Amino acid sequence: MKVSQLIICFWAVIAMASCNNSDKRAAGWRDFYKDSVFIQIPGKNVHEILELRVSIPLGDGNRRLMRTRYMSGDTLCLGVPCGADVRVSENIYEYMTWITRDDNEKLKTGTDHEIRLCLPDSSYIVVRKEHPEHCWLQKINGPVIGVGEAPKR
Q: Between the N and C ends of the chain, which has fewer C-beta atoms within 10 Å?
């Protein structure tokens, strides 16, 4: 009985520690973008964005969310739980969540994609392995310290 209680207590502490780290990450991004302009685009969700052919892959909102991505094991995660944390609309956040989920599927289902570090933005991106290496796109072997963390002001 005591062993099972000890195990449950151990897992609860681990879960709270990981949530606390996630909360700190999001709080850092909220603080970093608190004085930034709020970015929004037309459309209620990802499907409307795609139907309206809104060009956001190069937009500031997408870039803000890309910078929050971090690696957890061999999976990409967004460092904020909602778009408001980086001052972007929820449809842009939903779009980036969809892109991140798609990138993770590419990594799981085949061996022809890999994660690389995009140096100008310090963000992770998924590309085909045969994509040529450039000075701004670096191959990585694991998580890079500082990527996905809010910069200090």
A: N
Tell me how far apart the alpha carbons of residues 26 and 70 are, in angstroms, rounded to a whole number.
Answer: 12
Buried b / exposed e over 25-54, threshold 16 CB at 10 Å, is: bbebbbebbeeeeebebebeebeebeeeeb
Give residues with Cβ within 8 angstroms of 144, minimum separation 6.
Answer: 71, 117, 122
109 pLDDT above the threshold of 90: no
Residue with tokens 């997408």: 62
Q: Which of 5, 111, 102, 94 is nearest to 48 (CA)?
A: 94
CA angle 66, 69, 71 (to 5 degrees): 150
8 Å CB contact between 82 and 59: no
pLDDT tens for 34-86 read 777 777 776 666 667 667 776 654 477 888 899 999 998 889 999 999 988 98
- CA–CA distances in Å: residue 81 to residues 8, 57, 141: 26, 20, 26
Q: Which has the minimum average pLDDT: 16-30, 87-101, 123-137? A: 16-30
